[in-house]
Write a structure and sequence with these properties.
The complex is a heterodimer of chains A (482) and B (228). By secondary structure, chain A is mainly beta. Helices cover 0% and strands 40% of the residues of chain A. Chain A is built from no helices and 31 strands. The chains are: A mainly beta (482), B mainly beta (228).
């Protein structure tokens, strides 16, 4: 489908084109990259520090652009190296009141959310397992919210012999009695399915890895906007739209209950307690080089750009383009990622896991080093790029190493892309230096993100190593939000 | 605010000599350029000989602001480590600005100069669309591209075989405007963009190796097609 107009610069490169859509930054935040090493076992001696955190990516799967930069929260900015992986998670909503004919909204609570009797104070932490003494249903706490008179617990991995907790049953925390029960008329049924997180893991046979099991920064006002909620879920029943889509979400005066606007109106009343269909969302997982810590005074800023109808400003003037369905495809009232440079090169592991002998990476030095902290990278490669296997007669050298493409940010004042955070994940030779210590550089490079200290045990003196890799050209896309 | 940037560097080997650096920028009327200069390219040392040394500017059909106490990048200064050039001439005119720093040599009180020059021709033949916000910031610049989402393509390939995926418009007018990334969990395909119009190739990962590895994965793919 063609829509809008096409604007081309003097080099013939399109700035707006008739078939592609501008993204809008709907979610931004910060996270501390962690390790994606498997488990804390003796075989995984390098898995230290907090695990990599996942953040729910708003927008339909495949319709989001991810932007990242490291940022010092105090003190000076230092070099930092990290990689980004993608996974998916299932989200959902459950209605908390009957819908009203003619209205376009529905009151609902996130699936997996449980209200605890108001008279009971139940203290929980992420990771606690809450279970029903009678039903056997259990779920893992993601977070809790305290309202005016109640506590709401958001659970993941809800499972058990029944779909729901039973009204009136006692709740256990980590197997111990709490004194809390599931109240009558609870708002926010636990939901008919638990939230699960699935991660890319094609190398699981060799080196399984896992992030922190709970996503960070779940934003109920953003994460499921744009999602289809009908079909297979009953939300389509009684709605003027056969596949009603969530177009806006607002808070209400009741903690844990949200007002979801759909793109259709109710033609008949829908009962309370009706779940939406499962809503699939990407999660972005931010990992650091496996044997080095991320700079302690730094965080990783992320911004997610999605296809939506929102703008950042309402200046009353500007320039907008819409598609045939009235959806916003470009607005000058949005803060945009404006690209300063696109560099294509090879950032994949070649040879064996001993990449200290040379490893390709390519870089770009920004035009405005005095404002280096303003630069973001558009993530255009995700997940593992190489698996290295080494077998030997000793347990000291054999094992599996996993690599992905990632970024090394080297601000002015730093000579190399390498620093303590990069470890041996980035080969350094005199030719790999920035052109000046005052330059601000960003490199696309291989990042060793997991190591499983296990592998074929060979006879004395025997040795082999193999590398399996993607060897795909990569784009390093650098710019600022203006 | 500046709309363009230039960071000029002179290699440190020329530190004790009179050295210069020149660049050309052909820009439109009224363009603003953020300009930084550095006389120690290629070293991580810093000479105090250039601390608090300021540029003497000579301009033609342009102005600089600030025009005083502009030190080189990374140097101690009572002013700034950059300046902004504004083109004041008309279309067809040449413009230039020269900054001369005078400083002592390392290990000596003898003085040498570092000369940085940026010049060009003012041309409005830089067409396209410019859009600004209420503060004058360029929301769309003819010199800066923006990433857009073009399509999301999903499917399932055949075992151990490359796949050719047809995407209307892809790689046209140039592959440099296009990028595709496979985000499917556990997919055994990687993207080979190539240069053929309207298509890309999904390369089966196992075909890149000559050993015994067999990966457990899926032949499904989910391609995010970007244009910029």
């Amino acid at each position: 489908m063609s829509y809008g107009i096409k604007a081309v610069n003097k080099d013939g490169v399109s700035l707006i084109d008739e078939n592609s859509k501008q993204v809008h930054i709907s979610k931004a935040g910060s996270v501390l990259p962690g390790t994606l090493g498997v488990t804390d076992t003796p075989n995984n001696v390098f898995n230290t520090g907090p695990k990599a955190r996942a953040v729910v990516v708003p927008g339909e799967v495949g319709e989001t652009l991810v932007f990242v930069r490291p940022r010092a929260t105090s003190g000076n900015q230092t070099a930092a190296t990290f990689s980004v992986h993608m996974g998916v998670v299932g989200k959902g909503w459950t209605s908390t009141a009957a819908t009203v004919v003619g209205q376009s909204y529905i009151l609902a609570t996130p699936t997996g959310q449980l209200k605890v009797r108001p008279s009971i104070t139940l203290s929980v932490s992420a990771g606690d397992v809450i279970s029903g003494a009678t039903s056997g249903v259990s779920g893992t706490v993601i977070r809790s919210m305290t309202g005016n008179s109640s506590t709401y617990i958001h659970l993941r991995d809800v499972s058990g012999t029944a779909e729901d907790f039973t009204i009136g049953e006692s709740l256990l925390k980590n197997g111990s009695s709490t004194g809390a029960t599931v109240p009558q008329g609870t708002i926010g049924n636990p939901g008919s399915f638990g939230e699960e997180m699935y991660l890319e893991n094609f190398t699981k046979d060799y080196c399984p890895y896992e992030p922190y099991p709970f996503s960070e920064d779940e934003n109920y006002l953003v994460d499921t906007i744009g999602a289809l909620t009908g079909a297979q879920s009953h939300w389509a029943s009684g709605n003027s739209n056969s596949l009603p889509r969530i177009i806006d979400i607002e808070t209400t005066s009741t903690t844990g209950v949200y007002k979801l606007y759909l793109d259709g109106t109710w033609s008949s009343s829908l009962a309370a307690g009706t779940p939406s269909r499962g809503i699939l969302r990407n999660v972005a997982i931010f990992a650091r080089e496996f044997q080095s810590s991320f700079p302690s005074n730094h965080v990783l800023d992320y911004r997610f750009g999605v296809l939506d109808n929102d703008a950042d400003e309402s200046a009353g003037y500007g320039f907008e383009l819409r598609d045939a369905n009235g959806k916003l495809t470009y607005s000058s009232n949005r803060v945009n990622f404006q690209i300063e440079s696109i560099t294509t090169g090879n950032a994949d592991v070649v040879g064996n896991r001993d990449i200290s002998g040379g490893n390709p990476f390519f870089d770009y030095e920004v035009n405005d080093p005095t404002n280096y902290q303003d630069y973001f990278a558009l993530v255009a490669s995700f997940g593992p790029s190489a698996l290295c296997l080494e077998g030997s007669a000793t347990s000291n050298t054999r094992g599996y190493w996993l690599y992905s493409t990632g970024f090394s940010f080297s601000p002015p004042g730093y000579w190399y892309y390498d620093n303590a955070t990069a470890g041996f994940g980035l080969y350094i030779s005199p030719g790999d230096q920035k052109s000046s210590r005052n330059a601000g550089g960003i490199a696309h490079c291989a990042v060793a993100f997991a190591h499983w200290k296990n592998g074929p045990q060979l006879a004395g003196g025997s040795y082999f190593d193999e590398t399996l890799n993607h060897l795909s050209p990569r784009d390093l896309i650098i710019g600022k939000f203006i | 605010m500046s709309e363009y940037n230039i960071s000029q560097q002179i290699a440190y080997q020329g530190f004790n000599f009179n050295s210069s650096k020149s660049d050309v920028m052909n820009l439109e009327e009224g363009a603003k350029i953020r300009w930084t200069m550095d006389a120690e390219g290629g070293t991580n040392a810093h000479s105090t000989k250039i601390d608090n040394e300021y540029a003497v500017f000579t301009t033609s059909n342009c102005s600089v602001s600030p025009s005083s106490q502009v030190a080189m990048l990374g140097c101690t200064t009572a002013g700034t480590n950059h300046t902004v050039i504004t083109l004041t001439g008309s279309e067809g005119q040449s413009w230039s600005v020269t900054a001369v720093y005078t400083h002592e040599k390392n290990g000596s009180t003898d003085e040498v100069t570092k000369t940085f020059t940026v010049s060009g021709t003012i041309s409005n033949d830089i067409y396209g669309m410019e859009i600004r916000d209420g503060s004058g910031n360029l929301r769309m610049s003819v010199g800066r591209r923006q990433p857009r989402l073009h399509a999301f393509v999903t499917g399932t390939g055949s075992n151990n075989a490359d796949q050719t995926i047809t995407i209307s418009g892809f790689n046209t007018p140039s592959p440099a405007e296009w990028h595709a990334v496979n985000i499917k969990d556990g997919s055994l395909y990687r993207v080979t963009q190539g240069t053929t119009a309207n298509q890309l190739t999904l390369t089966h990962i196992e075909q890149n190796i000559n050993n015994f590895f067999t990966l457990d994965g899926t032949h499904e793919y989910e391609l995010v097609i970007m244009r910029y």
